[in-house]
Amino acid sequence: MQIVWYGNKAAIDAVDRAGSEVFAQFVDLDGTPGYYSYIITHKDSGITSIDQVLKNGKDYSFGIGDPSSTSGTLVPTYYVFTQNNADPKTLFKVVRSSNHEGNLLAVLNKQVDVTTCNSEITDKMKEKAPEKLAQIRILWTSPLIPRNPLVWRKDLPADLKKKIQDFVTGYGKNEREKETLKNMSAADKKVKLAEIDAKLGALSKLIK
Length: 208
Known about the structure:
Layout: E1 3-5, H1 8-17, E2 20-28, E3 34-35, E4 37-42, H2 50-55, E5 61-64, H3 70-81, H4 88-91, E6 94-97, H5 100-108, E7 114-118, H6 119-128, H7 130-133, E8 136-141, E9 145-146, E10 149-153, H8 158-170, H9 175-183, E11 191-195, H10 202-207
Parallel strand pairs: 5-6, 5-7
Antiparallel strand pairs: 1-10, 2-10, 2-11, 3-9, 4-7, 4-8
């Protein structure tokens, strides 16, 4: 394969180990290049801060994302737990793994006390079921996470790279193309593709 749309972790692995470069990513039409990881709870849980979670972990059940999920596992694990010398596996009385939708529903249904989630999923719920989102309390918000990038082989000819770059970053001018891009966004947002640097910067340090 010459071009792949990767998750952040897979993209970093491809750059580090497989002679690849990141050349584009999705951004909102306002230029926002990313999204946020959250740790959330139900407003009825009695939990009001992340410090409360860290101090009383054995009282709570915790939902975490897939092991390779940037916002569901890697980012919150680094910033919330590793930085506080804590391991979710031993901190909580129960840890269960699911995708973002499953973890959000688990909190809404009071099946877990605390879970990871991200702003793309909460934005989608805000549009479709705001009354449910109103039941959620956000305990922690991450730094901005870059959206999943497009990666190409570093050894592609320069003229071919230019043609690909022009097509990708120019896509989305008519309504059909705009709708296609919207359907590719996890948050159903209006997005565009933009040129970015060949490295994912600080994110690579915490994912490794």
